[in-house]
Design brief:
UDP-n-acetylglucosamine1-carboxyvinyl-transferase, Chain, 443 residues, 2 domains, 30% helix, globular, single chain, alpha/beta
């Protein structure tokens, strides 16, 4: 599917709801599936990544029923309850989160052997760190020494808790936690730096299974403790909201309110960076919802200073760098992004691919393997020729390119736009509500 943007968006003053949070949606289904009893998850993200997780759980003989729009019941049978035939294929599509977390649960569920695969993008992502973790719990992957999908995973028949030092990946930290739930003994996780804690927040409902020690950033998972069923309502995704916040900030005389957004401090890097550089952003009406902080975002357009980020920002703004690169390109001055090497291992090399996109519209960039310097201009001169961009199965590249077109009026044709459905299926609908114009061309 191609989407064509060629008109600059007009000023607006709107209230919107963005899509529910993908990270929490996936985790809610996975943890419900190994809880004892019937869980209810509402306001789930109806995206391809979430559906691929649901379909994989069903293949592992977990009963899941849709009871109304975006609301499901999960009939969990407890830890170690998955079972399936040896030739079962689990296709996680584009979902790195789904793949890593479901693999970790399978790894400590005795007598399970499955084949794992994904889409073209997921097959290009190195899984060596995940494989090493699963091996520590006694699981094995085949062929040996292969680190890319497709892979065969054979679970451990006698998993024992491990000690794990977590780096910058919240997914690997969560994988260690979920694998530890059905292991004998205690799994101890040492965090070098605090990363997303959605898994911890869900598991906190089961105090016998988890202990969080702020001193030393230590997480203890106590294996073989029955998990109680969940009742969770998913808040809106701050990463999806970031693209609309950017449109508002870069536009003229515009205001935007985004309701019921997850404002977990570990997800607010983008908003904190923008506020530090002069953006008019407020978070109001905060409340606690299932151990997550939820609130309303209020954004106003206005001038900001060039962006400067360092290693301390990366963990809380990982998914928002593509849109920050667009903001930097349309902000007068030199923006510098440092210690962003992790972007190379995302759905695409987001440093290199964003540099290519910005170069196409005449924006000077200097990129290295872990940094990006962007020479931005507030008075962007619209290129006379049309630009074609291939999403390369990366939803963040597609959405960032859309913002570039909407805020400059440059004619941009984005190929493979359907990849946006993995995280934000309502993206174009919301763009239209804000007054944005586009044309869709099906293949």
């Amino acid at each position: 599917m191609q989407v064509i943007f060629e008109k600059k968006i007009n000023e607006f003053n709107k209230f919107i709801n963005v899509d529910p949070d993908k990270s929490i949606s996936i985790r809610a289904f996975l943890i419900s599936s190994i809880s004892q009893g019937i869980s209810k998850v509402s306001n789930i993200l109806p995206s391809e990544d979430v559906f691929s997780t649901i379909n994989s759980l069903k293949k592992l003989n977990c009963k899941i029923i849709k009871i109304s729009k975006n609301e499901y019941k999960i009939f969990g049978k407890g830890l170690g309850s998955f079972y399936t035939t040896k030739k079962t294929l689990l296709d996680l599509g584009n979902s790195g989160t789904g793949l890593r977390l479901i693999s970790s649960i399978i790894s400590t569920t005795p007598n399970i052997e499955v084949n794992l695969t994904g889409d073209k993008s997921l097959k290009k992502r190195n899984m060596s760190k995940l494989i090493n973790l699963l091996n520590e719990f006694g699981a094995e992957t085949y062929p040996k020494n292969k680190v890319y999908l497709p892979l065969k995973l054979k679970s451990s028949n006698f998993p024992v808790g491990i000690k794990f030092v977590a780096g910058t990946s919240a997914q690997l930290k969560s994988a260690a936690m979920l694998a530890g739930l059905n292991s004998f003994g205690t799994t101890t996780i040492f965090e070098k730096s605090k990363t997303r804690d959605h898994t911890e927040n869900i598991l906190r409902k089961n105090s016998k299974s988890i202990l969080l020690k702020n001193k030393g950033n230590i997480i203890k998972i106590f294996g073989k403790k029955t998990l109680n069923p969940l009742n969770i309502k998913i808040p809106s995704d701050p990463s999806s909201a970031a693209f609309f916040a950017a449109i508002c900030i870069l536009n003229n005389k515009s205001e935007l309110k985004i309701r019921n957004v997850c404002v977990n401090p570990k997800r607010l890097g983008f908003y904190n960076i923008l506020k530090k550089h002069g953006a008019k952003i407020k978070i109001l009406n905060k409340k606690n919802q299932n151990n997550e902080t939820v609130g309303d975002l209020f954004i106003k357009s206005g001038k900001i200073k060039p962006l400067k980020t360092s290693a301390s920002h990366y963990l809380t703004a990982t998914d928002e760098y593509p849109i920050m690169f667009i903001i930097a390109a349309l902000t007068k001055g030199i923006s510098k992004f440092r210690n962003i090497g992790g972007l190379v291992e995302k759905e695409t090399n987001r440093i290199l691919e964003m540099k290519k996109i910005l170069k196409k519209v005449g924006v000077k960039c200097i990129a290295t393997k872990d940094s990006m310097t962007i020479f931005g201009s507030r008075n962007f001169l619209k290129t006379k020729k049309q630009i074609t961009i291939d999403s390369l199965h990366d939803h963040r590249l597609a959405m960032a390119s859309s913002v570039l077109a909407l805020c400059t009026g440059t004619k941009i044709i984005i190929k493979g736009f359907e990849t946006v459905n993995t995280s934000s299926p309502s993206f174009l609908k919301i763009v239209k509500k804000l007054g944005g114009k586009y044309e869709i061309k099906k293949k």
